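We modelled the chain as a single entity of 233 amino acids. Its sequence is:
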Amino acid sequence: MAERIKVFCIPFAGGSAAIYNTWKELAPSTIEIVPVELAGRGSRMTDPLYKDIHAVVKDVLSIIQPHITRERYILFGHSMGGLISYLLSSEIAKRGLPQPLHLFVSGKGTPHNNRPDKKKYHKMPFPEFKEKVLNLGGTPEGFFDSPELMELFLPLLISDFTLAETEFDEQIIHPLDCDISLLIGNQEDLTSEQIEGWRDYTKGDFNVYRFEGGHFFIHDHKPAIIQLLSNHQ
């Protein structure tokens, strides 16, 4: 029997590892979905929030390193998780560790193509932040109306958007050896430069897969996405 490939899945801003639980049930026997829990949520609710994006990468690497040194694997991340997955792949390459078979970035433009026309979410006044986040479609209805949920999760949400909107001073791109696939919704607010620019991040193949929907298209296309993961093992 062929070896199962681990697929480490990193959540979006405000999300926990639980968002990938249903993926486990849909995955074929050839791949193993491994949700990664970030600090401050889910089973790690009491862990302090990250100070910067580099702390996230260091933490996630410490979680997956025992596996990647002896097993083949794939990385998948949506939105903030896509940025983390790319930076994680870069750190893995720098350390001379086995690189992923494939990097799947979902709902995230390239790290180095900043858009001066787009205001940073985490810098917005609260009413505007609330409106923008609700428009993205990933926040449960009634979240901003619940004082208990706000007290518990708003600091996490703001922290995650701060991480996701990290600006990188160094503009030098070090292409990865692994292939990269970008998954995006056809209503995603990304420029062609933010999409096609991912080609510069790999020495291998680059593919774009488009799905019906907006930023959170992944919730509506789970079987198709898992089939993609399976096809690229």
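As a brief sanity check on the tokenised model: DSSP finds seven helices and six strands in the chain. Strands lie at 5-10, 31-35, 73-78, 102-106, 179-185, 206-211.
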